[in-house]
Structure formats: structure tokens, C-alpha cells
């Protein structure tokens, strides 16, 4: 019975990491990338998201609750999983370890980012270009965001590979090798999008 529950939780953890949390990450990166078009471009995109109907319901049930479960169960996996990198130096073992490390970094980063933006917005601070420009004007915060964004994207892209394996989408060695290249491409592409957005707030 406990084994079945563990299997279900791991599957749910994997699914929520892609849908809806992963999809929200991509959408968030796209909105932020509007900053490369200037202050007005970003503020329009952010304003559109800010005024979506039923935004609080959507944020609670589509973003925050799935993210909370994924984060908490992810911590359980990270601190109970047995890594074999010291004994087996294979690529996937290292990806397994990096997935756990990036998960912890991502949790710290996302928690801080939510506090600095969404919680601040609840107390009346306007989430706009100026807010992000002020945050990223601090060199420490700029590099904190660089590391956090890249870590979050890696965690999503590498998690996507694991998702496809665990859900039976890629079952052969060839399909898993192809998935490795695809997810690596996703990581590079989204990292470019994320870093360009951060740089746009500082130039």
C-alpha cells in the first residue's frame, strides 16, 4: 500500500513539474522577455497578466498549490534519494544529482522571487519594469537572479526528460538519447530568453 502511494506521489510530482508548473515557467519567461522591447513593452505584457479575470483563483490552483506540492515532495526526494555519481560516473547519474541540487537552488530562488514581487504587490507595490530594474541594479541580486533563472530552467528541462521516461513516452535507448538532445536544446533556448530578459532590465 505504501509502495502504491509512493508511486502515485512520484508520478503526480513529475506531472505537476511539467503541467502546470513548467508551462507557467515558459509563459513567465516569455512575458519577461518583453523587457527586451523596452519599458513600455514589458509593462503592457505584465499589465495584461495582472488583469486576467479570476487571476487569484488561477494563481492559487494552477500555480501556487501545484508548485508547493512539487517543491515539498521534491525536497523529500532530494534528501532521500541515493546518488551513485561517486561509484558510477555516467552522464545520467550526474543529471540525477544536478536535478536534485538545482531543485534546492530553484526553491530558494522562487521563494525569494515570489516574496519580492507577488507578496510586495499584495501590499501595494507595483510590479513593473521599474521594480525589476531596481532589484537587478544590485550586483549581488543580479547574479542571484542569473543563477536562479538558469537553475530553474535546467530543473525544468532535465525534469522533462525524466517525465518522458517515467510516463512511458521514451522507452527505448534511442528515444531517450533523442530526448536528451531535445531537452538540452530547450534548456539552451529558454536560458537565452531568461538571461536576455534580465539584461534588458539593467541596460
What are the main properties of this structure?
3 helical TM bundles of succinate and fumarate reductases; mainly alpha; 8 helices; about 200 residues
Describe the SSE topology.
Elements: H1 2-18, H2 21-33, H3 39-50, H4 55-80, H5 91-122, H6 129-136, H7 139-166, H8 173-200
How are helices and strands ordered from N to C? Answer: HHHHHHHH
> CATH architecture, please?
Up-down Bundle
Relative strand content = under 5%
Structural class call reads: mainly alpha
Q: What assembly state would you assign to the polypeptide chains in this entry?
A: single chain
Which sheet architecture does the biggest sheet show? none
Shape: globular
Total strands? 0
Enumerate how many helices there are, as a single number: 8
Radius of gyration: 18 Å
- Taking the alpha carbons of the first and last residues, their distance comes to 56 Å
Give the name of the CATH superfamily.
Fumarate reductase/succinate dehydrogenase, transmembrane subunit
CATH topology: 3 helical TM bundles of succinate and fumarate reductases
Number of domains: 1
The parts where pLDDT drops under 50 for at least 5 residues are none
Helix content: over 70%
CATH class: Mainly Alpha
- The mean pLDDT is 91
Amino acid at each position: 500500500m505504501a509502495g502504491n502511494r509512493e508511486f502515485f506521489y512520484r508520478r503526480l510530482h513529475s506531472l505537476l513539474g511539467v503541467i502546470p508548473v513548467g508551462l507557467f515557467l515558459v509563459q513567465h519567461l516569455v512575458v519577461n522577455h518583453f523587457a527586451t522591447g523596452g519599458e513600455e513593452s514589458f509593462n503592457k505584457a505584465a499589465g495584461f497578466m495582472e488583469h486576467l479575470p479570476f487571476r487569484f483563483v488561477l494563481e492559487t490552483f494552477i500555480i501556487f498549490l501545484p508548485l508547493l506540492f512539487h517543491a515539498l515532495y521534491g525536497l523529500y526526494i532530494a534528501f532521500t534519494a541515493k546518488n551513485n555519481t561517486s561509484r558510477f560516473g555516467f552522464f545520467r547519474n550526474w543529471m540525477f544529482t544536478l536535478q536534485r541540487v538545482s531543485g534546492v537552488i530553484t526553491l530558494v530562488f522562487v521563494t525569494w522571487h515570489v516574496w519580492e514581487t507577488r507578496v510586495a504587490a499584495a501590499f501595494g507595490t507595483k510590479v513593473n519594469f521599474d521594480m525589476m530594474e531596481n532589484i537587478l541594479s544590485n550586483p549581488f541580486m543580479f547574479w542571484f537572479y542569473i543563477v536562479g533563472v538558469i537553475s530553474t530552467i535546467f530543473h525544468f528541462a532535465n525534469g522533462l526528460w525524466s517525465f518522458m521516461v517515467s510516463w512511458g513516452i521514451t522507452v527505448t535507448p534511442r528515444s531517450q538519447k533523442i530526448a536528451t538532445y531535445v531537452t538540452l536544446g530547450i534548456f539552451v533556448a529558454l536560458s537565452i530568453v531568461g538571461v536576455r530578459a534580465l539584461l534588458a532590465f539593467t541596460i
